[in-house]
Amino acid sequence: MYRRRALLLGMAMLTATSAGGCSDPPAAPAKTQVIRLTVPDWNLRPPGTSCAGAGPYRFAHAEAPFVIRDGDGREIARGTLPTGTSEKAMDVDFSKVKREPTLCVMLLKVETAEHVEGQVLVLPDRPAVSIQKSDSAEFAGEVVVS
Amino acid sequence: MRSRSCLPALLVVALALGGCTGSTGEVVDRPPSAALPGPVPKGVTFVAPPTNAPRAPGFTLELLDGTVLDMTEQWDRRPVVLVFLEPWCTLCAEQQREINQLVEDYRDVILFVGVGADSTADRMRQYVRDNEVKHPVGIDATGQIWRKYRVEEPPLVALVTKGGKLLRGWPGGTDTLRAQLNDLVTR
Question: How many CB atoms lie within 10 A of CB A132?
Answer without folding.
Answer: 14
